[in-house]
Write a structure and sequence with these properties.
This protein is α+β, with helices and mostly antiparallel strands and 389 residues long. It folds into four domains: 2-50; 63-285, 3-Layer(aba) Sandwich (Extracellular Endonuclease, Chain A), CATH 3.40.570.10; 289-339; 342-389, no CATH class. Helices cover 41% and strands 17% of the residues. It is built from nine helices and 16 strands. The chain has helices at 2-26, 31-50, 59-72, 85-94, 96-104, 192-195, 209-229, 290-341, 375-380; strands at 112-114, 134-137, 149-153, 177-178, 181-182, 184-188, 204-208, 235-242, 252-259, 266-272, 278-280, 287-289, 344-347, 354-356, 371-374, 384-385. The strands form five sheets. Strands 1-10-9-8-3-2 form a six-stranded antiparallel sheet, with helices on both faces. Strands 15-13-14-16 form a four-stranded mixed sheet. A hairpin with a 6-residue loop joins strand 13 (344-347) and strand 14 (354-356). The longest helix is centred in the C-terminal third of the chain and has 52 residues, at 290-341. The protein starts with a helix and ends with a strand. It holds the Pfam family Endonuclea_NS_2. InterPro entries: Endonuclea_NS_2. Keywords: Coiled coil, Endonuclease, Hydrolase, Membrane, Nuclease, Transmembrane, Transmembrane helix.
């Protein structure tokens, strides 16, 4: 009603001004126009008086209003507000020990395992609803890795706009196609469907397709369904990527969630960041498929086999060369022996037991008679070689 009075008053005011100008030009009575103008002013004043005063907004309402406004925009900013930042930091500090234990774990054959028996570890203090819904993302660490996503979720935080393509790359992003699909996804810590956060590096890690969907997605979808069915209820949610030392790709992700004042949503799990049939180098994000590993092993085996055969051939060649050298030495010795056996020597049968190669050797100077024969014959008769020669 008050709005209608203001509008009618304004129209009357404009009409009165027009009439006043027309009367001034024609030099006719201007009183009628004056009455119209004054009356229009009274009508607008009445409408203003009847309009209700603006209400004061409580702190909780302000917090949720800011959150709702941010949700309607592209959610590229790190935080919806600072309401839960202290809660998030304190909770993360309390979880450091379990995070270290998870980082040391090795994947065996089960990708998703329960932590603390599947029970979340939120306290009443860090899951209270007195400040309304909130979300908070940890600062990137010294290696530019995402650190955590913490939130008190409500349907009001869920986005209404469609998700846009992701354009920023988290650490360890060395993607490649495997079986017509890419190995990695830019994985949200807190899923887009829950808060609308998208191109926010504080909320993204390099995750395998298998980590992102179906494993993380099935927990996120359960929360999203609960919130849509219960728009006034809240879910405390925590997501922490688990890195080992200075590796750029997370070994896994811990998810905790608890619906407030009931157990419709309640889980505490650790999901290994693995992909079946792929070996991931978590230090830099490089990877090898089972086929690539087999091909590499086959190549190395072929190289080792070829090297072994070459070594065997080298050894055989050396053995053949040694055998040939030995045969040459034996043959040479035999030739020398044969030559020695057929050599002519000189002996003095009546005056000594030595044989001489030279008939004029001084060892024969006093011989009464000298006889020639072969060296072998002389040796057979007991003669030894002369010491002067």
């Amino acid at each position: 009603m008050e709005t209608l009075l203001i509008v009618l008053g304004f129209i009357a005011f404009v009409f009165g001004i027009v009439n006043f100008i027309s009367a001034f030009r024609k030099k006719t009575d201007k009183k009628k126009s004056g009455y119209i103008i004054v009356g229009s002013l009274f009508i607008m004043a009445a409408g203003s008086i009847l309009a209700p005063e603006p209400q004061q907004t409580s702190p909780t309402t302000v917090s949720t209003t800011i959150a709702s406004t941010e949700t309607s925009k592209k959610k590229d900013l790190p935080d919806t507000g600072n309401a839960g930042k202290t809660i998030a930091l304190d909770f993360q500090k309390e979880q450091q020990q379990i995070h270290q234990e998870l980082a040391a774990m090795e994947y065996t054959d089960q990708q998703t395992i329960d932590v603390n028996g599947g029970k979340p570890t939120f306290t009443e203090e860090d899951s209270g609803t007195d400040i309304g819904y909130w979300e908070s993302y940890g600062d990137l660490d010294s290696l530019n890795r995402a650190t955590y996503g913490e939130a008190l979720l409500n349907k009001s935080l869920m986005p209404s706009e469609k998700r846009e393509a992701l354009t920023v790359d988290p650490t360890g992003w060395r993607n490649k196609k495997i079986d017509n699909n890419y190995l990695y996804n830019r994985s949200h810590l807190i899923g887009f469907q829950l808060t609308g956060q998208n191109n926010n590096l504080k909320n993204l890690i390099t995750g395998t397709r298998q980590l992102n969907s179906p494993e993380m997605l099935r927990f996120e979808s359960d929360i999203a369904y609960f919130l849509k069915q219960n728009p006034k209820k809240f879910v405390r949610y925590s997501v922490t990527p688990i890195f080992r030392e200075n590796e750029l790709v997370a070994r896994g992700v811990q998810l905790q969630a608890q619906s407030i004042n009931n157990d419709e949503i309640s889980f505490n799990v650790y999901i290994f960041n693995i992909q079946d049939g792929v070996e991931i180098n978590y230090a830099d994000g490089s990877s090898r498929t089972t086929a690539e590993i087999q091909a590499e092993n086959d190549r190395k085996a072929a190289e080792e086999h070829a090297a072994a055969e070459a070594e065997q051939a080298r050894i055989a060649q050396e053995q053949q060369a040694a055998a040939a050298e030995q045969a040459r030495i034996i043959a040479e010795q035999a030739a020398q022996q044969q030559a020695a056996q057929g050599r002519t020597v000189y002996v003095a049968p009546q005056s000594g037991k030595k044989y001489h190669f030279n008939a004029n050797c001084r060892g024969l100077s006093n011989a009464n008679s000298v006889v020639s024969m072969t060296e072998s014959e002389a040796a057979a008769q007991g003669y030894g070689r002369c010491g002067f020669e």
